[in-house]
# Entry
Amino acid sequence: MPIAGPAAEALQALTPEQIIFIKTLPKAELHAHLNGSIPISVLQELAREYVASAPLSSKSVSNDAIRAVIDDLLNGVTLDEISDFFGLFPAIYALTSTPSALARATRAVLSLFLDGEYPQCTYLELRTTPRETPEMTREQYLRVVLGELRHYGVQRAALIVSLDRRMGNEVLRECLDVAKKLKADGEPVVGVDLCGDPMAGDVELFREYFDEARDAGLGVTLHIAETKQNPTRETLQLLSFSPDRLGHATFLDEEAQKIVAERNTCIEICLSSNILCRTVSAIGCHHIRHHLKQGHPIAICTDDVLPFRTSLVGEYALLMAPKPLGLGLSEAEVKAVAEMSMQSRFVSMAGVKS
Ligand code: 6MZ
# Structure
C-alpha cells in the first residue's frame, strides 16, 4: 500500500534524484515495533483467516471488532490523542497470536524493511513485546521472531525485547530471563526497551530489570517524555537508569535536556508518529530542530508504519523536503543524520556484543 500523510506529501515535493539519494543512503532503523509494522495486505490475510476460523466464543476479539480495525487502518486512523492509538492493538494481537501467524507477520515486516532493489534500511533493530498466548509461551514467541530474523544475519537485523509499562514483576522477570538466555545462546538479541501507553504503570518498578539487562551486555532504550502529561519526576527517574538511547523524548524540560546533552544520548526520532499522535503539531515545530542545531545524535525512525502509513524513506523525505512540508535539509545534512543512526546501533556500541 502506498504511504500517506505528511511523509507522502514530503516525498512528492522531492525530485527523482533526491529520492534516489535517500533510498541509497546507508541508514539504520532503530525504532520499529513489530506489531505496529505489519504490512496491511498481510494483516488483511490474517484477518480473513481469523474471521473464517473457530466459533466466535473461543475468540479473544470479535470478528466485527477485527473488521472495524482493518477498515480504520485501510482508511487511515484518526487519533484525537495518543491514548487512542493503543486501542488498535487488541485486534492486531488477536491476529498474531499463533506461531504461524506471528512468523508470517515477522517475515513480512523484515521483508518490508530489508528486501528489494532499494531496501528501506541497511540495518534494522526490530523491537517486540514477548506475549503469552494460548498457543505460545513468551520464550516461544521470541524464538518464532528470531527464527525469521536469523535469515538476514546480525549485520542486517537484530532484536530488541520490549517491556510494556503495564507489566508486573512476574512477567518482567520472565522477559528478562528469556532475553538473557537467548543472548547467551548466541541469538541476535541486542537490547531492551520500555514501551506501551505512556501514562501506564510506575517506572520505578523497571529499574532493577534495566540494570540487570545492562549488566548482561544488552543495550537499553526507553520511551521517555512522549506526552506532555509525563511528569518531570518520571523523566528524571528514567534518565537515572542511564539509558543508551531514548525514544521520542518530546517533552524534556531544561534539566532533562541538560542531562541528555551532557551524555550525548541518541534520540530515536519518529516524525510522522509524533504528528499523527498529536504530540507535535507540525514538522516545523518538532523538537528535532533543536537537536539538529546542537549536532546532537539522533536516529530517524518509523515507529509503526502500519497505522502511520509511512516508510523510512518517507521519514527521511520529511528532513529534505522544502519548508513547510519538510525541514529543507541539504544532502550533506541528511547524510550526517543517517550516519548518526548507524553509529547508534546497539551492535556497534561499546559493551554490547551480538
Ligand atoms: C509507546 C508504543 C508506541 O511490541 O507488540 N508501541 N509504545 N509509544 C508508541 N508510540 C506511538 N508504538 C507502539 O508492538 C506493538 C506495541 O508497541 C508499543 C505498544 O506497547 C504496542 O502494544 P509489539 O510488537
User: Anything to note?
Assistant: The chain is about 45% helix and 10% strand.
